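[09:14] KT: can someone run the structure on this one? pasting the chain below
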Amino acid sequence: MTFDESRLGNSGRAYAGAWAEGRAALVGYLPVGYPDVSTSVDAIVALTQGTDGVGCDVIEIGMPYSDPVMDGVAIQRAGTAALERGVRTRDVFTAVSAVAATGTPALVMTYWNLVDHYGVRAFARDFAAAGGAGLITPDLTPDEAEEWVAASDEYGLDRVFLVAPSSTDERITSTLAACRGWVYATSVMGVTGARTQTSDAAPKLVQRIRDIDCGLPIGVGLGVSNGDQAASVGSTADGVIVGSALVSTLLAAEAAGTPQDLTALRALVGDLAAGVRRADRA
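[09:31] RB: done, structure tokens below
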């Protein structure tokens, strides 16, 4: 497979590095601010380390939002608690800086209203200054992203847009043209959340994207919760995205009265990292 170097950007190069090792990249998501800002930053950095120094290749940092229409129960619970506990946009930049210091690309996944309220160019400027790689924008479509395209070009940031099984070939084509870094393929219709089995729509959607344009890496998300599922998705996709399962370890730790205990989180990252490394990509 050949990626278009001119379009890989900051985070796409991490995908390309994983591909050169014969595996899919592992992309981990956690929201900033849960169970508190300090612990959330520690947890986000822990995603890069796993249990033995082998962790995620790319980090997604979530910006909690009051109306998270795409998020499932686990992420909504954590995000709501973070907002109630006073998380602020500046805390996202703190988390981005901490991840960037590890050498791992840090993306922020955010609903567009938060960036628009901050000021698109100002957000791009401050995010880039913190060492951020780019944004994943689930509710912003390329045809409504003119201001973001301009700001991301100015500050050299990645633009990761989403496609779904319901996307037409025309929509996939236009979305791929607007992306820099990689494209986010949602493997199921509906909200985020760990599932007992991965969707059989994922390989079909990945192939549709490849048939249209194979110049960008393809990350698949929504539903992966363990190493076996990571291996399954990683056999066809260029990146395996995990969020709700990771958030659930933090929810469980707080419920147990040990919110700063990241043992389960690190263990899950280790299992997922092993999963993408044993995927059959023949």
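[09:33] KT: thanks! The longest strand covers residues 25-31.
[09:34] RB: yep, looked fine to me
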